[in-house]
Amino acid sequence: MFGQTEQWDLNGVVERPVNQPTTNYRVSFAGLSPAWNLRVRETVMVWLNPRHPAVLAAGIHLKPQPREPRTATLRAGTLRALAAWAHTQRLPEDLTRWDVEDFHRYIDAQRQRLALGSVNEHVVVIKALHEFGPVLACGGLPADPWPGRPANRVLGIRDSEELSTPAIPPESWFPLVRAAWTYIDTFGPDILRARAAWQGWQAATRRLNRAELTHAVTDWLANPQHRIPVRPNTSSDPAGAVNWKVLATMIGASNNLFDSHSAAGQHRRSLVLDVVAAGRTQPGLLHDLHEVTRPDGSRGPWHPCLHPLQLWMECVALRNACYIFVAALSMMRDSEIRQITRDSVVEHYGAPAVTSTKRKRDPDLPTRHWWIIEPAAKAIFTASQLSLHPELAFGRVRDGGDDDGFASQHAIVSFIRRVNGSRRYSGLPAIPDGKITPHMFRRTMAMLTRDHPGSEIALGIQLKHVATRALANRSTPGYARSTPAWARRLDDALASTRFQRLQDLYDAHRRGETIGYGPAADRLRDTFDNVTRAVTRVSEQTQHGDARVEYDLLRKARISIRFGKLNHCTLDEANPVGAKCLENTTLPPGHQGPLIDRCQPARCGNSLFGPEHIPAWRTEEQTLLTLLDTPKIASCRKTVLQQELGDVHAVLRKATS
């Protein structure tokens, strides 16, 4: 392709990711003078062939992996911008005659109109003109304008663990994910059913001869199960409400059965209108759409009239809903989601997972597994039912156009517009306006899962980050870092749930039930008794007491408790004395509360064992006893098991004392 001076079309030459448009794989050299045209083509060729013998012979040693074609395309555009600026500044085409200040002026001009991240690419290509100089026929830069300084240092860009990708705000996240799941779980079956019916009717149509036309209409109308498809009609003319083209397809005729300009067509119309007058109609292709509660409080079908055009629009919306739902709950990259093929949901280490191709920083394009939940698996299956692509689960939903299907960013925007525009009859919540990109789903879900024990390791595995530290690199904390809006919402939700469970414990104590065992349980009972006495005093003074007053006092008691599967932790952050998890350890800066991964329930005075925990401890006791009875067990292993059994017995003694 090197001799092509206008454009290099790399589509079909190298594999293009499904989520990339064809324009990203076309390198343009339009508008360049012959000297600049050759210079740009040579630099792009070096980026695409870094291990070419001519490049190596010239002493240019780059990373062996070729640059992505879209990167080469963007950098060619950056070089065109440099050439255009040089033309306006009347600078010579021979770069050896430029002064260093010329490049500084150019970068200053770019700073005025671009973000620093974009200006960084301009510095990169200028440095490349110096680095690639030995293989440039028209000559490169004799010296680096910024010697010894990488591009980000030239611009003062500092490395940071903060991701530039923002999280989706909670006020947008919840209605968007809820609307996507409603489309998949509630509206999806109706859409797929209507699509199958319409495709079946279309496949069964044939051209009828004149003698068969009226007979076909009367036979079809004679079946009481058949209904006339009508549109919402504001006029008083019933004929204007009937969808005559759809009705002809339902009858099985490709002819114009209901031509209003012929006597026979008018007669057949009159037969249909008699049935319409009797009320045997349906709004579109189906008569039994799922009913929803609408914003005005009324109930009715989720769609007022599902005719073929509306059906196609709803198929697109359903496909987009499936994409959004999988992007939100799988933490997959856009390219990985778009590469999902049919029948790609498998079992991986005992849990459902989806297989796809990992592209980022992996030239081998390996197949990887991402764990998913059952609703996400349903979304993938629904998308594959809609897709007309022979292999991909996410593709186009209507004949015509290319096989790649759709633009991911447009799919999100289109779905939000569809939801907000149909709220009056679909009953879906409104989704606030705002920019939402595919990568923001990955960022948001990673943040929402950050508080689970071992979350960084789990996120490193799921996000497919490089295994440089406990299966997660330094990008993982950036993905998991919370935002102020989410922090407030999650803290409020956690506090509300925690207080509800505390109320349940308090109510159980008031009823005389056992709420737990151990010193921590004794302290909690004393606190509950103090609250009860305070409620009694308030009642005596005001001659009135109710549950609201009681729970207000309970909230003001500020009881510290964290609920768990094997025990509850009552660590008081203001007085963490006796917390085994905090002994002999260095707390991370800003950390508050216990270190969950270091919890030692049997030995910590802050552990509260409820009646619901005891069965798990008894099961553990039986498991340990069984293991200790194993013949020929190693002595060191036996010692460890005996220590664990001692801890279990310590817990059970508290429950029986």
Overview of this protein structure:
Helix content is 50%, strand content 6%. A three-stranded antiparallel β-sheet has the order 7-8-9. It has a two-stranded antiparallel ribbon with strand order 1-2. It has a two-stranded parallel ribbon with strand order 3-4. The chain has 24 helices and eleven strands. The chain has helices at 34-48, 53-57, 69-88, 100-111, 116-131, 151-154, 170-204, 210-222, 238-241, 244-251, 263-277, 308-330, 334-338, 374-386, 408-421, 423-426, 438-448, 455-462, 475-480, 484-510, 519-542, 547-556, 614-628, 635-656, and strands at 7-9, 26-28, 228-230, 281-283, 291-293, 299-301, 345-348, 351-357, 367-371, 568-569, 607-608. With 657 residues, the protein is mainly alpha-helical. It is flat, with a radius of gyration of 34 Å.
Kindly summarize this structure in a few lines.
This protein has 657 residues and is mostly helical. Helices cover 50% and strands 6% of the residues.
Low-confidence stretches: 467-472
Termini distance?
Answer: 85 Å
Q: Characterize the largest beta sheet: strand count, sense, and whether it forms a barrel.
A: 3 strands, antiparallel
Mean pLDDT: 86
Portion of residues in helices? 40-55%
Gross morphology: flat
Distinct helical segment count: 24
Using only C-alpha atoms, the radius of gyration works out to: 34 Å
